[in-house]
Design brief:
Elements: E1 4-7, E2 12-13, E3 18-25, E4 30-40, E5 51-55, E6 63-64, E7 75-78, E8 90-98, E9 106-111, E10 115-121, E11 126-133, E12 136-146, E13 153-160, E14 165-172, E15 183-188, E16 200-202, E17 205-207, E18 210-212, E19 217-226, H1 231-240, E20 247-252, E21 261-264, E22 272-275, E23 279-282, E24 303-306, E25 320-323, E26 331-339, E27 345-352, E28 363-367, H2 369-374, H3 380-383, H4 386-391, H5 399-406, E29 426-428, H6 454-467, E30 471-475, H7 476-482, E31 492-494, E32 501-502, H8 504-515, E33 519-522, E34 530-531, E35 541-543, H9 573-576, H10 581-584, E36 587-597, E37 599-601, E38 621-622, E39 633-639, E40 651-656, E41 664-665, E42 688-693, E43 699-702, H11 708-712, H12 720-733
Parallel strand pairs: 2-27, 28-30, 28-31, 31-33, 32-34, 33-43
Antiparallel strand pairs: 1-3, 3-25, 4-5, 4-6, 4-26, 7-16, 7-22, 8-13, 8-19, 9-10, 9-16, 10-11, 11-12, 13-14, 14-15, 17-18, 19-20, 19-24, 20-21, 21-22, 23-24, 26-27, 29-35, 36-39, 36-41, 37-38, 37-40, 40-42, 42-43
Helix pairs in contact: 7-8
Length: 738
């Protein structure tokens, strides 16, 4: 069991800034904190060896350990700005599209705090209206008819204090012969109830700050009115927008879709806020396929999809803060937390960028933090049965994998589905992310070190340190915030091993940097594959909608292809019209997680333009070794393709061949499912080592393989893959134009 977990509110700092650390400790009395520079995170005994460096920094401590909890579940909340006094009968109604009826009791709308009326689905999946006093149910009416999953209903509840009668009705918008899923029922409140109207919540009830009785599914157009209008009038009001004169509140979820607020069109302006990022920009009951972009017709996207396992911000309190040294050089750092009993540790990883106005190194490493977040706390090895088959090996289980299975509240990655089976659109770093640490191992890192994302990227950082190459670090979030200016002062930009997730601003920054004559070394595979979006008002979270094609464990649902945060079309950059080949020369072609392969030089390797690449490398076979599958070309690999934008002057100086049949072509290339789409059968399944000059005097060198860096690290960086990388880097640093 992990006894310490933690996070910070930022993942990119500058020297001299304050760092906040939020910690939860279980089963320990106290812990110490030190600042470390992370050099090499791979603990494989066949690798170059784990390495970090202690940084002198006053942090205080030892610190008393306390447990901080995480509670998941998205919901909406309204806190009336003025006291409401509503007398007489009242009705509550909404359109719903439940996804897990019958799994548990689920709140649709709760009106009041200590004394409340609660429109819900009971534990059988039937619409119900409850009267609650001091946390105790004092009356209930149920339709006694279960709702169908993923079907639209109007649900109506009303209470008449004159008779203490509760009424509830559910009406299916689409009916079928012999299917009974509409109904009504009545009940009574034992001693009456005076609803306090202090708060109104949607999709959950709050126990302090924690959501409970969470609803799974869509809610649209909830409203409250005085009296008990006929059910037909309520249905007409919700489905045909015909007015009811006695409206108290009428919420419109189609406003401010990009953010986390919603408005009330009623007389009391009971506007509200959503918490834990439920899905917005999803099809509502009126969506008919005539529009796909929610911004063109928001009323077709007036629904919100709530989940009981949504999580945006864990909301932990800060346990300590400290100030980074003013002279701290740029790099990857971590606050190392260690229990005073010596039995547990945790690393809170972040980047330190160059100080403003300070001299910069010639080389900058772009830490692909968006991709780290996409995989944050993923459970691919245990929850996804085909992972073991796809890896071609028995899976290695690290202790953090076990911890995540035992603690699902730590949130999901973009590779999971929610408890109701819908895809996860958002991933946040405002929670402990267990895989963004040195020393951790993965499921799909290939035979050998079996590391992924951040830890795999430390093979590149270790290479810089081994060769004495000065470098700075920026993050994806810096590119998103500053655009090309985050890269402008550097001669060479080096990517990580797997920069898969990219926003428009990030991709623009790489393109603009290249257009200005910059030099790019893409040392990874499956890069720049999915479009993501950030939200300026909601820091620390990314959105990804996997539309129409690509390697994916879920799809966003027909009509739900445009991002909530930006209104941009989601999906593959290739399908959006900006294939990675245009900037980097190569793009994703296949994946396989068993064995990696070497590259074989091509005739283009003899071209004088490529001579600098192979200085001191006489052999034709490159990278027939490595810590990731035993070769330099593997895991996820990229190829050139002139039809997708590879520049015509690009040289493919080496290519991998004869991958195993675990390697399969990407879905976007598979137009006809025949037996010719595996590693031994398809010429498309290869990694192309590619170089080209740009018209502005810059150049691009792309490896097209996640496994490349793991071969760089082989035998302490003494090998032909590391030599080629150094040759290219030193030539790229040279200001002489190509």
């Amino acid at each position: 069991m992990l006894k310490i977990t933690a996070y910070s509110s930022k993942i990119s700092y500058r020297p001299g800034e304050q760092v906040d650390v939020k910690v939860s400790g279980q089963g320990i009395e106290a812990y110490n904190a030190t600042l470390k520079r992370i050099v090499q995170g791979d603990i494989n005994p066949d690798g170059p060896g784990y390495k970090d460096a202690d940084i002198s920094c006053e942090m205080g401590g030892p610190f008393h350990a306390r447990e901080q909890k995480i509670v998941t579940g998205s919901y909406g909340r309204v806190l009336p700005r003025t006291a409401l006094s509503i007398g007489g009968a009242v009705s509550i109604a909404a359109l719903i599209w439940p996804t897990m009826p019958g799994s548990s009791r689920q709140t649709i709308i709760s009106v009041g705090s200590q004394s409340s009326l609660r429109l819900s689905l009971d534990d059988r999946g039937c619409a119900a209206l409850e009267a609650i006093s001091e946390g105790r149910r004092i009356g209930e009416a149920s339709t006694n008819v279960q709702c169908r999953a993923k079907a639209w209903y109007v649900v109506i509840g009303s209470f008449n204090p004159a008779t203490n009668e509760l009424r509830v009705e559910q009406r299916a918008l689409q009916t079928f012969p012999s299917i009974r899923d509409s109904g009504a029922g009545t009940g009574r409140v034992s001693n009456g109830i005076d609803v306090d109207w202090r708060e109104i919540t949607f999709a959950a009830v709050l126990d302090g700050r924690s959501p409970t009785l969470c609803y799974n599914g869509k809610i649209e157009a909830p409203f409250i009115c005085s009296g008990q209008p006929p059910s037909d009038s309520v249905v007409d009001h919700l489905t045909r927008k015909r007015g009811i004169d006695t409206v108290i509140a009428e919420w419109d979820f189609s406003t401010d879709i990009a953010n986390d607020t919603f408005s009330d069109r009623g007389p009391h302006s009971l506007d509200g806020k959503f918490f834990n990022l439920p899905h917005r920009a999803v099809s509502g009951h009126t969506w008919d396929g005539s529009v796909y972009r929610w911004s063109e017709c928001p009323e077709h996207y007036a629904a919100v999809h709530f989940h009981d396992d949504d999580l945006y911000d864990a909301g932990w309190e800060t346990d300590f803060t400290f100030r980074l040294p003013d002279d701290l050089r740029s790099g990857a750092y971590a606050v190392h937390l260690s229990a005073t009993d010596g039995e547990s540790e945790y690393y809170v990883v972040f980047a330190v960028t160059a100080a403003k106005g300070a001299p910069k190194n010639s080389v900058v490493f772009v830490m692909p933090t968006a991709s780290y977040m996409a995989y944050a706390n993923h459970r691919l090895g245990i929850d996804v049965s085909e992972t073991e088959i796809g890896a071609g090996q028995l899976l290695q289980i690290d202790r953090h994998h076990v911890f995540l299975q035992e603690n699902p509240q730590y949130g999901l990655s973009l590779y999971e589905v929610h408890s109701d089976g819908s895809g996860v659109f958002f991933s946040s770093r405002l929670r402990p992310v267990l895989d963004i640490q040195p020393k951790v191992q993965g499921f799909i890192g290939g035979l050998g070190s079996n590391i992924w994302q951040f830890n795999a990227d430390t093979h590149i950082l270790g290479f810089f340190e081994d060769r004495g190459i000065g470098y700075d670090v920026v993050t994806d979030e810096d590119l998103e915030a500053e655009g090309v200016e985050a890269l402008a002062d550097y001669k060479v930009v080096v990517t990580g091993t797997h920069p898969e997730y990219t926003s428009t601003k990030m991709l623009d920054a790489y393109r603009d940097y290249s257009d200005r004559g910059g030099r790019i070394m893409y040392l990874g595979g499956n890069g720049f594959y999915w479009r993501i979006t950030y939200n300026e008002k909601l820091p620390g979270v990314i959105e990804c909608r996997r539309s129409e094609s690509g390697i994916r464990g879920w799809e966003p649902g027909t009509g739900n292809y445009y991002h909530q945060f930006s209104g941009e079309l989601g999906g593959l950059w290739r399908r959006i019209g900006r294939a990675p080949q245009e900037v980097f020369g190569v793009g994703m072609t296949a994946q396989g997680f068993d064995l990696s392969s070497p590259y074989i030089k091509t005739e283009a390797a003899k071209n004088p333009r490529a001579a600098f690449i192979f200085e001191g490398v006489d052999e034709d076979m490159i990278g027939d070794f490595g810590l990731n599958g035993g070769g330099a070309a593997g895991n996820e690999i990229d190829r050139t393709d002139s039809a997708l934008g590879t520049p015509p002057n690009a040289l493919v100086v080496a290519s991998s061949r004869l991958h195993t049949d675990i390697y399969l072509m990407t879905p976007e290339d598979l137009l006809d499912p025949t037996p010719t789409w595996s590693g031994t059968q398809s010429d498309l399944i290869r990694s192309d080592l590619t170089f080209f000059e740009t018209s502005s005097g810059g150049a691009v060198f792309s490896t097209g393989s996640i496994a490349w860096a793991a071969s760089m690290a082989w035998k302490g960086y003494d090998n032909n893959v590391a030599r080629i990388t150094e040759n290219v880097l030193r030539r790229f640093v040279n200001p002489e134009k190509f």
